[in-house]
Specification:
By secondary structure, the protein is α/β, with parallel strands linked by helices. It is 27% helix and 27% strand. Strands 3, 5, 6, 9, 10, 17 and 18 form a seven-stranded mixed beta sheet that branches. A six-stranded parallel beta sheet has the order 13-12-11-14-15-16, sandwiched between helices. Helix 8 links the parallel strand 14 and strand 15. The radius of gyration is 20 Å and the shape is globular. The termini are close together.
Protein backbone atom coordinates (compact mmCIF):
# COMPACT_ATOMS: atom_id res chain seq x y z
CA UNK A 1 0.00 0.00 0.00
CA UNK A 2 1.10 3.61 -0.60
CA UNK A 3 1.95 5.67 2.47
CA UNK A 4 3.46 9.02 3.43
CA UNK A 5 6.53 8.07 5.45
CA UNK A 6 8.82 10.37 7.43
CA UNK A 7 12.10 8.64 6.66
CA UNK A 8 14.63 10.63 8.69
CA UNK A 9 15.15 13.81 10.68
CA UNK A 10 15.34 17.28 9.20
CA UNK A 11 13.16 19.40 6.96
CA UNK A 12 11.16 17.37 4.45
CA UNK A 13 12.16 13.71 4.15
CA UNK A 14 8.49 12.78 3.76
CA UNK A 15 8.24 10.23 1.00
CA UNK A 16 5.41 8.39 -0.74
CA UNK A 17 6.50 4.77 -0.40
CA UNK A 18 5.18 1.27 -0.93
CA UNK A 19 4.70 -0.25 2.52
CA UNK A 20 3.46 -3.54 3.87
CA UNK A 21 -0.26 -3.79 4.63
CA UNK A 22 -0.62 -4.41 8.38
CA UNK A 23 -2.55 -7.22 10.05
CA UNK A 24 -4.15 -6.89 13.49
CA UNK A 25 -3.09 -8.95 16.47
CA UNK A 26 -5.70 -10.58 18.70
CA UNK A 27 -6.51 -7.29 20.49
CA UNK A 28 -6.47 -4.95 17.49
CA UNK A 29 -8.72 -3.92 14.63
CA UNK A 30 -7.68 -3.08 11.09
CA UNK A 31 -9.15 0.11 9.66
CA UNK A 32 -9.51 1.15 6.05
CA UNK A 33 -8.82 4.88 6.16
CA UNK A 34 -11.36 7.21 4.54
CA UNK A 35 -9.87 10.55 5.59
CA UNK A 36 -6.86 11.69 7.61
CA UNK A 37 -6.33 15.28 8.69
CA UNK A 38 -3.08 17.23 8.56
CA UNK A 39 -2.30 18.35 12.10
CA UNK A 40 0.08 21.03 13.28
CA UNK A 41 2.23 18.22 14.67
CA UNK A 42 2.50 16.75 11.18
CA UNK A 43 3.64 20.17 9.93
CA UNK A 44 6.24 20.42 12.72
CA UNK A 45 7.43 16.89 11.98
CA UNK A 46 7.75 17.67 8.28
CA UNK A 47 9.77 20.78 9.11
CA UNK A 48 12.04 18.82 11.43
CA UNK A 49 10.91 20.40 14.71
CA UNK A 50 9.15 17.38 16.21
CA UNK A 51 10.82 14.07 17.02
CA UNK A 52 9.26 10.81 15.86
CA UNK A 53 10.49 7.27 15.38
CA UNK A 54 11.93 6.92 11.89
CA UNK A 55 10.70 5.60 9.57
CA UNK A 56 7.01 6.09 10.42
CA UNK A 57 3.79 6.74 8.54
CA UNK A 58 2.45 10.09 9.73
CA UNK A 59 -1.21 10.96 10.40
CA UNK A 60 -3.08 10.63 13.68
CA UNK A 61 -6.40 12.31 12.88
CA UNK A 62 -8.47 9.86 10.86
CA UNK A 63 -11.72 8.02 10.29
CA UNK A 64 -12.54 4.83 8.46
CA UNK A 65 -14.24 1.45 8.51
CA UNK A 66 -13.30 -1.80 10.17
CA UNK A 67 -12.12 -4.43 7.68
CA UNK A 68 -10.63 -7.01 10.05
CA UNK A 69 -10.80 -7.74 13.78
CA UNK A 70 -8.52 -9.64 16.13
CA UNK A 71 -9.63 -12.92 17.69
CA UNK A 72 -10.32 -11.31 21.09
CA UNK A 73 -12.52 -8.52 19.74
CA UNK A 74 -16.26 -8.65 20.43
CA UNK A 75 -17.32 -4.97 20.37
CA UNK A 76 -16.38 -4.18 16.75
CA UNK A 77 -17.50 -5.83 13.55
CA UNK A 78 -16.41 -5.63 9.95
CA UNK A 79 -18.08 -2.60 8.35
CA UNK A 80 -18.31 -0.54 11.54
CA UNK A 81 -17.57 3.17 11.09
CA UNK A 82 -14.81 4.16 13.51
CA UNK A 83 -12.20 6.65 14.60
CA UNK A 84 -9.40 6.05 17.06
CA UNK A 85 -7.46 7.66 19.82
CA UNK A 86 -3.82 8.23 19.01
CA UNK A 87 -2.68 5.95 21.83
CA UNK A 88 -1.18 2.74 20.48
CA UNK A 89 0.68 1.61 23.59
CA UNK A 90 0.84 2.64 27.25
CA UNK A 91 2.29 0.74 30.19
CA UNK A 92 -1.06 0.58 32.05
CA UNK A 93 0.90 0.31 35.31
CA UNK A 94 2.05 3.83 36.21
CA UNK A 95 -0.03 6.23 38.32
CA UNK A 96 -1.06 8.15 35.19
CA UNK A 97 -2.34 5.06 33.40
CA UNK A 98 -4.17 3.91 36.51
CA UNK A 99 -6.04 7.24 36.49
CA UNK A 100 -6.78 7.11 32.76
CA UNK A 101 -4.25 9.84 31.98
CA UNK A 102 -2.68 7.92 29.10
CA UNK A 103 -1.45 11.16 27.56
CA UNK A 104 1.02 11.46 30.46
CA UNK A 105 2.41 7.91 30.48
CA UNK A 106 6.19 8.02 30.07
CA UNK A 107 6.08 4.89 27.91
CA UNK A 108 3.28 5.98 25.61
CA UNK A 109 3.59 5.27 21.89
CA UNK A 110 1.29 7.16 19.56
CA UNK A 111 -0.11 6.49 16.12
CA UNK A 112 1.61 8.63 13.53
CA UNK A 113 4.65 9.29 15.74
CA UNK A 114 6.00 6.02 17.16
CA UNK A 115 3.59 3.68 15.37
CA UNK A 116 2.37 3.85 11.77
CA UNK A 117 -0.54 6.26 11.35
CA UNK A 118 -3.25 7.22 8.91
CA UNK A 119 -1.61 8.78 5.84
CA UNK A 120 -2.14 5.50 4.02
CA UNK A 121 -4.82 2.99 3.10
CA UNK A 122 -4.88 0.73 6.17
CA UNK A 123 -3.74 0.89 9.79
CA UNK A 124 -4.16 -1.15 12.95
CA UNK A 125 -5.11 0.19 16.34
CA UNK A 126 -5.94 -1.38 19.72
CA UNK A 127 -9.67 -1.97 20.00
CA UNK A 128 -9.50 -0.21 23.37
CA UNK A 129 -8.57 3.00 21.52
CA UNK A 130 -11.30 2.80 18.88
CA UNK A 131 -14.71 4.52 18.97
CA UNK A 132 -17.84 4.03 16.92
CA UNK A 133 -18.83 7.05 14.84
CA UNK A 134 -22.45 8.17 15.46
CA UNK A 135 -24.70 7.52 12.48
CA UNK A 136 -25.31 11.22 11.82
CA UNK A 137 -21.61 12.16 11.86
CA UNK A 138 -19.80 12.06 8.52
CA UNK A 139 -16.42 10.43 7.94
CA UNK A 140 -15.05 13.93 7.25
CA UNK A 141 -16.22 15.32 10.57
CA UNK A 142 -15.15 12.16 12.41
CA UNK A 143 -11.62 12.56 11.05
CA UNK A 144 -11.45 15.66 13.25
CA UNK A 145 -12.44 13.91 16.48
CA UNK A 146 -8.82 13.88 17.67
CA UNK A 147 -8.27 17.66 17.52
CA UNK A 148 -11.74 18.14 19.00
CA UNK A 149 -10.78 15.79 21.84
CA UNK A 150 -7.68 17.95 22.40
CA UNK A 151 -9.93 21.01 22.53
CA UNK A 152 -12.32 19.26 24.93
CA UNK A 153 -9.38 18.25 27.12
CA UNK A 154 -8.12 21.84 27.27
CA UNK A 155 -11.52 23.21 28.27
CA UNK A 156 -11.96 20.48 30.88
CA UNK A 157 -8.85 21.67 32.72
CA UNK A 158 -10.66 24.68 34.15
CA UNK A 159 -14.07 25.64 35.51
CA UNK A 160 -16.19 27.59 33.01
CA UNK A 161 -19.54 28.95 34.12
CA UNK A 162 -22.41 30.19 31.94
CA UNK A 163 -22.00 33.89 31.16
CA UNK A 164 -18.24 33.81 31.80
CA UNK A 165 -16.23 35.85 29.30
CA UNK A 166 -13.64 33.54 27.75
CA UNK A 167 -10.88 34.74 25.42
CA UNK A 168 -9.49 32.25 22.91
CA UNK A 169 -6.21 33.50 21.45
CA UNK A 170 -5.42 32.08 18.02
CA UNK A 171 -8.08 31.13 15.41
CA UNK A 172 -6.38 28.03 14.03
CA UNK A 173 -8.16 24.65 13.97
CA UNK A 174 -7.67 24.06 17.70
CA UNK A 175 -8.68 27.61 18.60
CA UNK A 176 -11.87 27.39 16.52
CA UNK A 177 -12.72 24.04 18.10
CA UNK A 178 -11.94 25.31 21.61
CA UNK A 179 -14.20 28.31 21.00
CA UNK A 180 -17.07 26.03 20.02
CA UNK A 181 -16.58 23.77 23.04
CA UNK A 182 -16.58 26.82 25.31
CA UNK A 183 -19.79 28.13 23.69
CA UNK A 184 -21.44 24.77 24.35
CA UNK A 185 -21.01 25.55 28.05
CA UNK A 186 -22.93 28.82 27.73
CA UNK A 187 -19.98 31.19 28.06
CA UNK A 188 -19.38 34.28 25.94
CA UNK A 189 -16.37 33.83 23.67
CA UNK A 190 -13.93 36.40 22.31
CA UNK A 191 -11.61 34.89 19.69
CA UNK A 192 -8.59 36.85 18.47
CA UNK A 193 -6.26 36.81 15.50
CA UNK A 194 -3.99 38.88 13.28
CA UNK A 195 -4.22 40.29 9.76
CA UNK A 196 -2.91 37.06 8.24
CA UNK A 197 -5.64 35.15 10.10
CA UNK A 198 -8.45 36.93 8.25
CA UNK A 199 -9.81 33.77 6.59
CA UNK A 200 -9.93 32.08 9.99
CA UNK A 201 -11.53 35.09 11.64
CA UNK A 202 -14.15 35.04 8.89
CA UNK A 203 -14.79 31.39 9.77
CA UNK A 204 -15.22 32.34 13.42
CA UNK A 205 -17.93 34.78 12.37
CA UNK A 206 -19.61 32.05 10.32
CA UNK A 207 -19.59 29.86 13.43
CA UNK A 208 -21.35 32.63 15.40
CA UNK A 209 -18.53 33.13 17.88
CA UNK A 210 -19.72 36.01 20.06
CA UNK A 211 -16.82 38.41 19.48
CA UNK A 212 -14.20 38.18 16.72
CA UNK A 213 -11.29 40.59 17.19
CA UNK A 214 -8.35 41.40 14.95
CA UNK A 215 -5.86 42.63 17.54
CA UNK A 216 -3.86 44.50 14.91
CA UNK A 217 -6.89 46.75 14.40
CA UNK A 218 -8.37 46.74 17.91
CA UNK A 219 -6.75 47.08 21.33
CA UNK A 220 -7.66 43.80 22.97
CA UNK A 221 -7.34 44.90 26.60
CA UNK A 222 -9.65 47.86 26.04
CA UNK A 223 -12.10 45.62 24.19
CA UNK A 224 -12.15 43.01 26.97
CA UNK A 225 -12.52 45.67 29.65
CA UNK A 226 -15.48 47.13 27.78
CA UNK A 227 -17.19 43.73 27.57
CA UNK A 228 -16.48 42.91 31.23
CA UNK A 229 -17.13 46.31 32.85
CA UNK A 230 -13.43 46.69 33.53
CA UNK A 231 -12.91 43.40 35.35
CA UNK A 232 -11.12 41.46 32.62
CA UNK A 233 -11.72 38.01 31.20
CA UNK A 234 -12.70 35.10 33.42
CA UNK A 235 -10.70 32.64 31.31
CA UNK A 236 -8.00 32.79 28.63
CA UNK A 237 -7.10 29.80 26.47
CA UNK A 238 -3.90 30.58 24.54
CA UNK A 239 -3.91 28.47 21.37
CA UNK A 240 -1.29 30.17 19.20
CA UNK A 241 1.95 29.32 20.98
CA UNK A 242 3.19 32.89 20.48
CA UNK A 243 5.06 34.58 23.33
CA UNK A 244 3.38 38.01 22.89
CA UNK A 245 -0.01 36.25 22.97
CA UNK A 246 0.82 34.53 26.25
CA UNK A 247 1.91 37.81 27.83
CA UNK A 248 -1.25 39.49 26.61
CA UNK A 249 -3.38 36.63 27.88
CA UNK A 250 -2.10 37.07 31.43
CA UNK A 251 -2.62 40.83 31.21
CA UNK A 252 -6.28 40.70 30.18
CA UNK A 253 -7.37 38.27 32.90
CA UNK A 254 -9.40 39.49 35.83
CA UNK A 255 -8.28 38.81 39.38
CA UNK A 256 -8.72 35.09 40.20
CA UNK A 257 -8.90 34.43 36.47
CA UNK A 258 -7.94 31.13 34.82
CA UNK A 259 -5.36 30.67 32.07
CA UNK A 260 -4.80 27.57 29.94
CA UNK A 261 -1.71 27.18 27.75
CA UNK A 262 -2.83 25.12 24.76
CA UNK A 263 -0.40 26.18 22.02
CA UNK A 264 3.17 24.89 21.93
CA UNK A 265 5.96 27.47 22.00
CA UNK A 266 8.82 27.26 19.52
CA UNK A 267 11.26 27.66 22.43
CA UNK A 268 10.65 25.80 25.68
CA UNK A 269 11.85 28.65 27.92
CA UNK A 270 9.99 31.96 27.69
CA UNK A 271 9.86 35.08 29.91
CA UNK A 272 6.57 35.84 31.65
CA UNK A 273 5.27 38.15 34.33
CA UNK A 274 5.17 36.16 37.56
CA UNK A 275 4.09 39.30 39.45
CA UNK A 276 0.73 39.26 37.64
CA UNK A 277 0.17 35.65 38.67
CA UNK A 278 0.87 36.53 42.31
CA UNK A 279 -0.97 39.84 42.55
CA UNK A 280 -4.08 38.70 40.66
CA UNK A 281 -4.10 35.19 42.17
CA UNK A 282 -4.30 33.66 38.72
CA UNK A 283 -4.72 29.96 38.10
CA UNK A 284 -2.38 28.73 35.33
CA UNK A 285 -2.64 25.26 33.84
CA UNK A 286 -1.21 23.38 30.89
CA UNK A 287 -2.95 20.85 28.69
CA UNK A 288 -1.36 18.05 26.70
CA UNK A 289 -3.12 16.26 23.85
CA UNK A 290 -6.19 14.29 24.95
CA UNK A 291 -7.13 11.20 26.93
CA UNK A 292 -9.82 8.50 26.68
CA UNK A 293 -12.38 10.46 28.70
CA UNK A 294 -12.42 13.20 26.04
CA UNK A 295 -13.49 11.07 23.08
CA UNK A 296 -17.12 10.12 23.66
CA UNK A 297 -18.05 13.68 24.77
CA UNK A 298 -16.36 14.98 21.62
CA UNK A 299 -18.28 12.60 19.39
CA UNK A 300 -21.46 13.67 21.15
CA UNK A 301 -20.66 17.35 20.47
CA UNK A 302 -20.37 16.46 16.78
CA UNK A 303 -23.55 14.41 16.84
CA UNK A 304 -25.71 17.05 18.54
CA UNK A 305 -24.35 19.83 16.32
CA UNK A 306 -22.81 21.97 19.06
CA UNK A 307 -19.48 21.68 17.25
CA UNK A 308 -19.31 22.04 13.47
CA UNK A 309 -15.98 20.43 12.64
CA UNK A 310 -16.68 19.78 8.97
CA UNK A 311 -17.01 23.52 8.30
CA UNK A 312 -13.31 23.94 9.14
CA UNK A 313 -12.22 21.78 6.20
CA UNK A 314 -10.79 24.04 3.52
CA UNK A 315 -9.21 21.44 1.22
CA UNK A 316 -9.38 17.73 0.44
CA UNK A 317 -6.44 16.12 -1.33
CA UNK A 318 -4.89 12.74 -2.06
CA UNK A 319 -1.86 11.72 -0.02
CA UNK A 320 0.18 12.29 -3.19
CA UNK A 321 -0.57 16.03 -2.81
CA UNK A 322 1.14 16.63 0.54
CA UNK A 323 3.06 19.66 -0.71
CA UNK A 324 -0.14 21.36 -1.86
CA UNK A 325 -1.76 20.69 1.50
CA UNK A 326 1.30 21.96 3.38
CA UNK A 327 1.40 25.16 1.32
CA UNK A 328 -2.35 25.69 1.81
CA UNK A 329 -1.99 25.57 5.58
CA UNK A 330 1.18 27.66 5.73
CA UNK A 331 -0.42 30.38 3.57
CA UNK A 332 -2.83 31.25 6.39
CA UNK A 333 -5.80 30.68 4.09
CA UNK A 334 -6.19 27.04 5.04
CA UNK A 335 -7.74 25.81 8.26
CA UNK A 336 -7.97 22.04 8.03
CA UNK A 337 -6.82 19.82 5.16
CA UNK A 338 -7.99 16.22 4.84
CA UNK A 339 -5.99 13.65 2.92
CA UNK A 340 -7.48 10.64 1.13
CA UNK A 341 -5.59 7.36 0.64
CA UNK A 342 -4.86 6.04 -2.84
CA UNK A 343 -5.33 2.49 -4.02
Amino acid sequence: MKALVKTKAGFGNLELLDTETPSPNEDEIKIKVHYAGICGTDIHTYEGHYKVNFPVILGHEFSGEVVEVGTNITNFNIGDRVTSETTYYVCRECDYCQNGDYNLCNHRKGLGTQQNGGFTQYLVTPATSAHHIPDNVSYKAAAMTEPLACAHHAVSKIDIQPEDVVVVIGPGPIGLLVAQVVKSKGAKVIITGLNNDQARLNKANELNIDHVVNIQNTDLKSYVNKVTNGYGANVVLECSGAIPAAKQGLDILRKKGQYVQVGIFKDSEIPFNLEQIVQKELRIVGTRSQKPADWEPSLQLLSCGEVNAESLITNELDITQWTEGYDHIKSGEGIKVLLRPIE
